Amino acid sequence: MPSHTDAVAGLLAAEHPRFTDAEFARRRAVLETLMEQNGVTQLLVYGASRTGSAVQWLTGWPVTAEAAIVVAPGERDIMFAQYFNHLPLARKMARDAEIRWGGPSTIGAVVAELGRRLGGPTGRLGILGPVGYKMHGALVDLAGSVVDLGPAYGAVRLNKSDEEINWLRVGAAFSDLGVAGLREQARAGHTEHQLADIVERSYVPLGGATHIHYLGATSMDAPGVAVPRQFTSGHKISKGDVVTAELSAAFWGYAGQVLRSFIVGAAPTPLYRDLMGVAENAFEAITGKIRPGVHVQALVDAAGLIGEAGFTTIDDVVHGYGGGYLPPVLSAPGRADNTVPDMKLTEGMVLVVQPNVVTLDEKAGVQTGELGIVTKTGFESLHHAPRGFLEIEGGN
Questions:
Q1: How far is the C-alpha of 386 from the C-alpha of 180, rounded, in Å?
Q2: DSSP string covering 364-379, please?
Q3: Distance from C-alpha of 303 to C-alpha of 289, rounded to nearest angstrom
Q4: CA atoms within a 13 Å half-sphere pointing along the CA-CB vector of 23
Q5: Which of 40, 94, 158, 228 has a beta carbon 3.0–4.6 Å from 59's, enabling a disulfide?
Q6: How many CA within 13 A on the CB side of residue 324?
Q7: How far apart (Å, rounded) are the C-alpha atoms in residues 261 and 237?
Q8: Residues 301, 302, 308, 312: is their CA dihedral positive or negative?
């Protein structure tokens, strides 16, 4: 059996990487089982504006403007795609599907095909993906009943196959390159916009794509930014600043996620040393509890040391990942949204552990954490970027 390194090297060398026939067959079997369990004879898998992970999961086609797949056991899939100029690549990349243009109205094309298949408003139709109000109304008029398979699909995506994990390894490696780029190239005087450019230049030449790069800079002596910003600003970093980052570079839809904190040309202040110390302790405490069969409440309890140290959090401390923002989504004790699901960890789940420790006034904070797998023996991180405070050159 090839090693992880061999598998990853093969993916990077491919013109357009593809999962194996066996992996696609597994996915199709999973989808048909969900259809059978929910009593649906036809299924619409939908995506638009680059969202709708099930389209890519089923066919290998990353959604661009719009893609709608009509699925039925024993029949070839039909995928209606927009725009017309997207069809040549879709026909090359999408597996086991007849690719058609959606025409002036993808909704109209889908309704016409499903109407032919269902034969009247007595069938039971499944939908999967971000189906909008207008399309949903047309489907309700067409079928006897419409069933949302989204929750069932989300449940089967919690656990990743070995092939999926190898793709996540590539996304994690690309994300780590973003961290390395900041360490090696960022300087005092760069704006947050320029930091984002450094991050992207680290992996885009290798075939990576940006999922997110959240960045935030503030003075350690007079802090005002506790967590990375979702949109970068023209703020210039200066000596004595701290820069927090949440980076996710993706490999064909499979993204890593690494959270790190950087100090600019100075030692951390006592407050920031304390924040990072608690964050690192929380990371170790949470990941130390991760193994199959453990109830997720144990992870929440492990995060309790953050509040005990006199700090709090703004973001979740744990969430599932890979194909969406998945359960379990866990907050530290004391958060208003701290609703803990009744679920246990299972082998093959992929989690982001991210104890974002901030002050009670939410003016200062640090980031640490990363993506990893639940294995038989515990938590295996997919990242290799060093943790703790990393340094950015501060100039004279």
A1: 9
A2: BB---EEEEEE-SSSE
A3: 11
A4: 17
A5: 94
A6: 22
A7: 13
A8: negative
**H or E element in which residue 236 lies:** none
DSSP classification of residue 320: E
- The partner residues of 170 in beta bridges, in order of sequence, read none
For residue 279, give the nearest of 364, 388, 391, 392 by alpha carbon: 388
Tell me how far apart the alpha carbons of residues 57 and 379 are, in angstroms, rounded to a whole number.
25
Domains and CATH numbers, the chain: 4-156 (3.40.350.10), 162-392 (3.90.230.10)
Measure Cα distances from 274 to 179, 269, 278, 333 in Å: 22, 9, 6, 19
pLDDT in tens, 1-56: 234 555 566 677 777 888 999 999 999 999 999 999 999 988 999 998 877 789 99
d(CA 214, CA 222) in angstroms, rounded, equals 21
Identify the DSSP state of 100. E
Cβ count within 10 A of residue 116: 9
Q: Which residues contact 263 (CB under 8 A, 6 or more apart)?
A: 220, 241, 242, 243, 272, 389, 390, 391, 392
One-letter amino acid for residue 333 of the chain: P
Cα–Cα nearest to 75, from 16, 31, 109: 31
Provide the token pair at 239: 């000596």
Joined together, the tokens standing for residue 62 give 């990353």
- Number of other CB atoms surrounding residue 317 within 10 Å: 28
Cα separation, 244 vs 216, in Å, equals 5
pTM: 0.92
For 57, 268, 348, the CA distances from 316, given in Å and listed in that order, are: 26, 25, 21
> What are the pLDDT digits (tens) for 211-247?
999 999 999 999 999 999 999 999 999 999 999 999 9
C-alpha to C-alpha distance for 324 and 151, rounded to whole angstroms: 12
Per the CB < 8 A criterion, the answer to whether 125 and 40 are in contact is: yes
Q: Count of alpha carbons within 13 Å of 37, Cβ hemisphere only?
A: 11
Count CA atoms closer than 13 A to 259's CA, side-chain side: 26
